Amino acid sequence: MAALYESVLGSDFGRLLPLLQRLHRNHDLLWQGEADIQWGHHPLLRALLKLGGLPREGRGVPCSVRLSADGTRECWQRNFAGRAMVSWQHADQAMLFESFGPFRLRLTNRLVSGRLVQRSVATRFLGLPLPKRFGLRVRAHEQVRDGQMRFDVSIGLACGLRLIRYRGWLVAQ
Questions:
Q1: Strands (E), 93-130
Q2: Which tens digit of pLDDT belongs to each residue from 74-128?
Q3: How many domains are contained in the chain?
């Protein structure tokens, strides 16, 4: 059975840089590195992020990622200095979905010069579709530099308010 991203990307999967292919194909590897984490600036938002157990702000925060397969789904287990962020991804034909907590995002995927670029295009909350203006906006990319998998993930609201951004590097252990 093909890995999730092989199914979603089809023949484009072979155009991913080899390190990114390894990340998405070889499950149960532990990837470790560091991340810089920034929260949005609104005081109420900051309180919600803290209550939600999201990673604390910081530079050079130790982080790890482990992907595991469960049938046709992948579990993404992220850990930032002891704070876990877990999500599930699955595909419906060539469309990728990611679920975490009460949210489910539909993500587009495209390759740009060997790196993977993702954007959210629809949000569901508790199973109900949210109008685009109230949905989450996720922008993420994965690339390879200096033998490391580099990531940059920004999560915000359609109105332009940033909730959290985390970026950094990982290597397979």
A1: 95-100, 103-112, 115-125, 128-129
A2: 999 999 999 999 999 999 877 899 998 889 999 999 999 889 999 999 999 999 9
A3: 1
Residues 6 or more apart in contact with residue 86 via CB below 8 angstroms: 75, 76, 77, 78, 100
pLDDT tens-place string over residues 132-150? 888 899 999 999 999 999 9
Please name the residue that has the structure tokens 């790196």. 115
Which CATH number do you get for residue 95? 2.40.128.20
Residue among 42, 34, 26, 9 nearest 114 (CA):
9
DSSP assigned state of 40: -
3-state secondary structure (DSSP) of residue 153? strand
How many angstroms separate the Cα of 94 from the Cα of each of 8, 103, 109, 140, 143? Answer: 5, 20, 9, 18, 21
pTM over 0.85? The answer is yes
The domain containing residue 68 runs over which residues? 4-172
Tokens of 81: 């200095």
CA distances from 55 to 62, 131, 166 (A): 11, 27, 9
